[in-house]
Amino acid sequence: MNHPMWLDNPAITAELLPALGQTLLMTAFAALISVLLGLPLGIWLWATARGCLAPRPAVHRALSALVDLGRSIPFIILMIALIPFTRFMVGTALGWQAAVVPLSVGAIPFFARLVEAALRDVPHGKVEAVQMMGAANGQIIRQVMVPEALPGLISGATVTAVTLVSYTAMAGAVGGGGLGALAISYGYQRYQSDVMIACIALLVLVVVAIQFAGDRLARLADHRR
Amino acid sequence: MIELAGLRKEFAGTVALDGIDLSVPAGQIHGIVGRSGAGKSTLIRCLTGLERPSSGSAVIDGIDITAQRGAALRRARRSIGMVFQHANLLDSLTAAGNVAHPLKVAGVGRAERRRRAAELLDLVGLGDRADNHPAQLSGGQQQRVGIARALAAQPRILLCDEPTSALDSATTAQILSLIASLRESLGITVLIITHEMSVVREACDAVTLLADGRVASTGSLRRVLGEPGTALARDLLPLPEGREDSAAEVRASGRASVQVALAGTSVPELFALAETAGAPIAGVEAGTLETIDGLQVGRLRLLTDDAQALSGALRAAGIHVEEAA
Ligand SMILES: Nc1ncnc2c1ncn2[C@@H]1O[C@H](COP(=O)(O)OP(=O)(O)OP(=O)(O)O)[C@@H](O)[C@H]1O
Ligand SMILES: [Mg+2]
């Protein structure tokens, strides 16, 4: 070894914490935006399906195709393709703030599909029971679908956030910062395996923490047991 | 008051309802029976707008539900309470929250909602379970919460799709007496789908038998049971469970039996008839007897030495003989 290791290594002592912060910020903002936009998109996707609340098969097919398109583009390509849009939104294509844009765009359709699946799991009889009260579609979505599907929605958001953590590493590779960037530039390109190990350990910790919190919340929201 | 006229519903390929005409006067408890697939659920769903009939009308208190859309349909639905086979309660709400839900949808204030929910839960005997979620209640308790919910908005009509089929007989009796008392106190009209003939006997004023999407027979319980030859009357008053096929046992023991359906003839009268005709009844192997609306009805398997003579004598006296062997 020809470089200072572990606590003597400035890449760890000086850069690890800020990188962790960037990863957390990227994940948090992208997850927030994905939930805020993916939830209505997922609801729309669900409601327009055949035999559902507001059946519009043509709209459903179009949304479906759009969502699948979004999910099938490899993230790295999405990120590059979105550079002009990112510049327009945040003024730059570098830094964690810029990375939030492609991360969100990639995660919105992902989360929307999970939302649709969670809503589809709510038995149709419950919808009919509330329709018989004279409820309008908006009331049904707010008073029945979202609360009844909440455990599933929270699990979906958790999966999305965990997926986003691993995508932040990819975003890091092209100037997004964060633990992924640190791991690549020191651990991989400069053979500093201590940095690599520290970054991976922190990423695992972040994922475990998100999963733990998500499971906890989902269980709290679940009144079925 | 419910009036169905020429109600027809086709699903791709199948005709579920094939021209139903039926009238249920206000305040009546009306049973709908029929084999699985006969169209019972479809009929009730056409009365709610959850299903759109292919043609015909379903008029409730002067409003043709099948013609309503959007806000008008939502308004019409508020006067209809629906009890589902599986209670269809919301897991995210407590028992009280579920009962109060129709009031919330109707825009009733929180304090009034809470008061009404407590009242209704007391009515169904679950006053102490207000804060329980459905998962913490038994199936019968959930069903009672479902009934309380269906009544919350004070509907004029209560539609029940097999409300007791998942319940034991004690809970069933409880729920039926609840429905009967509601009719007494609130004067609501009740349509109740069931496959349990005991439910019809105990709770209904009138009954309709559906077969293949058509009305096979309909009328007051007294009238239907007064025509002992019909399949519906036979289904409504079967021989006791396990004794339906006892004729073979009787034969094996070297005796003969005659099965009769009674409507308006008492058992002593029956024995006297046989005695006079010279074909005495040796005993009763199995039987069901009930008094419905002042009418003595029943079904008996009689033991005799000469089945030919006994059945001939009874037939001559106008008694409905179902089998003689
Ligand atoms: N949504 C549907 N799509 C296609 N066919 C249907 C649909 N709903 C009902 N049917 C058909 O219509 C007929 C009547 O069904 P329905 O559910 O009304 O019967 P039911 O008398 O309630 O039976 P059960 O006692 O089993 O509940 C059946 O042949 C059924 O297959
Ligand atoms: Mg049915």
From TrEMBL, chain A:
Gene3D superfamilies per UniProt: MetI-like
SUPFAM superfamilies attached to this UniProt entry: MetI-like
ABC transmembrane type-1 domain location: 20-214
Keyword Membrane: yes
Keyword Membrane: yes
Membrane-topology annotation of the record: Multi-pass membrane protein
Pfam family, one: BPD_transp_1
Designated name of the protein: Methionine ABC transporter permease MetI
Species, as recorded: Brevibacterium rongguiense
TrEMBL record, chain B:
Alphabetized GO MF terms: ATP binding; ATP hydrolysis activity
Annotated protein name in UniProt: ATP-binding cassette domain-containing protein
SMART domains (alphabetical): AAA
Family, as annotated: Belongs to the ABC transporter superfamily.
PANTHER family, A to Z: AMINO ACID IMPORT ATP-BINDING PROTEIN (PTHR43166), METHIONINE IMPORT ATP-BINDING PROTEIN METN (PTHR43166:SF30)
Xref: PROSITE patterns: ABC_TRANSPORTER_1 (PS00211), ABC_TRANSPORTER_2 (PS50893)
GO cellular component annotations of the record: plasma membrane
GO biological process assignments: amino acid transport
Domain of life: Bacteria
Cell inner membrane found in the keyword field: no
Functional description taken from the UniProt entry: Part of the ABC transporter FtsEX involved in cellular division. Has ATPase activity.
Keywords: Amino-acid transport, ATP-binding, Cell membrane, Membrane, Nucleotide-binding, Translocase, Transport
Known partners and oligomeric status: Homodimer. Forms a membrane-associated complex with FtsX.
One Pfam family linked to the record: ABC_tran
ABC transporter domain residues: 2-237
